[in-house]
Amino acid sequence: MIRDRAFAVQHTQMFAPRYMQHFVTNICVVAADKGEIRARANYLLLQTLVDGPTTIHQAGRYYDVFVRGATGRLLLKNRQCVYDTLLIANDLVYPV
User: In the CATH scheme, what architecture does the domain 17-83 have?
Assistant: First the structure.
């Protein structure tokens, strides 16, 4: 599916120019144990077509697991994206 979306971005002429705004809010650390940090956050994805209004494209919640890398930096080990939106628009070509 990712390959299909990448192909659409590069080669489809039906894809109208747009601006995407991605908001991540209410970040909460749920647990920190065994070298992992579990967190959750809400997200909102807005889309503005060049010649149209801004619309809510998708909303939902991230469930993340972070680990410390060899340099001490936090690295994203796993992300689950649970969206509230009932239908996914077929023009959503960028990963959420």
Answer: Roll (3.10)
